[in-house]
Automatic annotation (TrEMBL):
GO terms for molecular function: vascular endothelial growth factor receptor 2 binding. Residues 1-24 form the signal peptide. Belongs to the nectin family. Gene3D superfamilies: Immunoglobulins (2.60.40.10). This is Cell adhesion molecule 4. The chain crosses the membrane at residues 323-347. It is found in: Membrane. Pfam families: C2-set_2, Ig_3, V-set. It is a single-pass type I membrane protein. PROSITE patterns: IG_LIKE. Keywords: Cell adhesion, Disulfide bond, Glycoprotein, Immunoglobulin domain, Membrane, Phosphoprotein, Repeat, Signal, Transmembrane, Transmembrane helix.
Length: 388
């Protein structure tokens, strides 16, 4: 607006000079820009209005208002104000075909007119993001982002994790609007599956700082992986063991096959989906259990070595080793804290001793200290137990 006004003043002065000082009457307008569907106000400013007829015409030179009276039946145009200072009309739901020059005419002995040019901009709709081909790990993905209507040409940008990706834009004119497309290509890995890509469209028809965005969730296909989790670490005869085969893969493998080495699965075994339940285990169930899954991109297999122990067996399971170490470290920490406490008590007793008489309950405190020290050696013993 500010810019429009700045340009207009010199023009007006020129026009006023050309019209000559004789009449003194003038009409003055400003160009108007509106977003499609929005509301535009066209103002004809009058100077030294003497009651002459004021006519407002649309770009097709049809009369909209004749000295304040509606002439054209289009309810989207409303006369907002008609005063000796100005005539103001309001156009709601502006359309592209409303574009053009609106005439403000003043019929005096010489008619004066000024043209207000209405420009209608078209804001982009939410872009449409499409993938060219199904993406597979190790390959490339090509995404296209399309905005069918915009005016002026919408700028399209791609983002991934707030970082901009470099796209290639192309546009073609379609009547008064532009059809814009941007494409982006990049390598994909299995980690990219589920990643979010954003296409953003922006032009002057949107309020500043605003944009239209569309999110696209990457769908990257990859070969499966498999891992077996056991319901317990140590298995004894009579136990029930549940093995779970955790599989990944896109498309997700829809079938999981359980096997045991060269042998068949125990008859009691029950395979449902990704779990294999082995109830009432006996040592004959020992063996290497496998789960397998596949999709069109590959095949995965996981192993689990089952060792069934006697019910009474004392097992030095691997997992118990870290517990012993953690226990030992804890015992050592407790011991150190007690030592520090004893040291503090000892110091405070010695300080007090220099001020107070020897009877002053110092003995009691020493007793406590001795007890604490004994506890400390307990802790020390405990620690040794853990290390054995
Ligand atoms: C108004 O728009 C018309 C057409 O685009 C242009 O020729 C004219 O210079 C503009 N006037 C002002 C004051 O900007
Ligand atoms: C035009 O309208 C204005 C405002 O209503 C009025 O003052 C003026 O007399 C009218 N002129 C004619 C010629 O009817
Ligand atoms: C499976 O059978 C083959 C031949 O019968 C043998 O060579 C192989 O060692 C067996 N594997 C297991 C795990 O028992
Ligand atoms: C199963 O494994 C355990 C531990 O190695 C062993 O004591 C037992 O004899 C095995 N049983 C069979 C049938 O192989």
């Amino acid at each position: 607006m500010g810019r429009a006004r700045r340009f207009q003043w010199p023009l007006l002065l020129l026009w006023a000079a050309a019209a000559g000082p004789g009449t003194g009457q003038e009409v003055q307008t400003e160009n108007v820009t509106v977003a499609e569907g929005g509301v535009a106000e066209i103002t004809c400013r009058l100077h030294q209005y003497d009651g002459s007829i004021v006519v407002i015409q649309n770009p097709a030179r049809q009369t909209l208002f004749f000295n304040g009276t509606r002439a054209l039946k289009d309810e989207r145009f409303q006369l907002e104000e008609f005063s000796p200072r100005r005539v103001r009309i309001r156009l709601s739901d502006a359309r592209l075909e409303d574009e053009g020059g609106y005439f403000c005419q003043l019929y005096t002995e010489d008619t004066h007119h000024q043209i207000a040019t209405l420009t209608v901009l078209v804001a982009p709709e939410n872009p449409v993001v499409e993938v060219r081909e199904q993406a597979v790990e190790g390959g490339e993905v090509e995404l296209s982002c399309r905005v069918p209507r915009s005016r002026p040409i919408a700028a399209l940008r791609w983002y991934r994790d707030r970082k901009e990706l470099k796209g290639v834009s192309s546009s073609r004119e379609d009547g008064k609007v532009w059809h814009v497309t941007s494409t982006v290509r990049f390598r994909v890995d299995r980690k990219d599956d589920g990643g979010i890509i954003i296409c953003e469209a922006q032009n002057q028809a949107l309020p500043s700082g605003h944009s239209k965005q569309t999110q696209y969730v990457l769908d990257v296909q990859y070969s499966p992986t498999a891992r077996i989790h056991a319901s317990q670490a140590v298995v004894r005869e009579g136990d029930t063991l549940v093995l779970t085969c955790a599989v990944t893969g896109n498309p997700r493998p829809n079938q999981i096959r359980w096997n045991r080495g060269n042998e068949s699965l125990p008859e009691r075994a029950e395979a449902v989906g990704e779990t294999l339940t082995l109830p009432g285990l006996v040592s004959a169930d020992n063996g290497t259990y496998t789960c397998e899954a596949s999709n069109k991109h590959g095949h995965a297999r996981a192993l689990y070595v089952l060792v069934v122990y006697d019910p009474g067996a004392v097992v030095e399971a691997q997992t118990s080793v870290p517990y012993a170490i953690v226990g030992g470290i804890l015992a050592l920490l407790v011991f150190l804290i007690i030592c520090v406490l004893v040291g503090m008590v000892w110091c405070s007793v010695r300080q007090k001793g220099s001020y107070l008489t020897h009877e002053a309950s110092g003995l009691d405190e020493q007793g406590e200290a001795r007890e604490a020290f004994l506890n400390g050696s307990d802790g020390h013993k405990r620690k040794e137990e853990f290390f054995i």
